[in-house]
Design brief:
mainly alpha
């Protein structure tokens, strides 16, 4: 498996985890204030879109 594709998948999964954690912080389910929950949400969005674009830009070689 291609290293770029693997790293992109890892970034995407970390981004999803950050988005979920930040959303739970906004809803008050985690011990974060509403302002502090924007940090994991923003980092999660950055990781998610970076991972998706890395996977999409990497071509398959057979």
């Amino acid at each position: 498996m291609n290293q770029k594709r693997t790293f992109g998948s890892l970034l995407t999964l970390l981004g999803i985890a950050g988005i979920i954690y930040g959303a739970m912080g906004l809803l008050g389910m985690v011990g974060l204030s509403k302002i502090n929950s924007f940090v994991p949400l923003g980092v999660g969005l950055i990781f998610f879109f970076a991972g998706i674009s890395l996977v999409r830009a990497t071509g398959d070689r057979a």
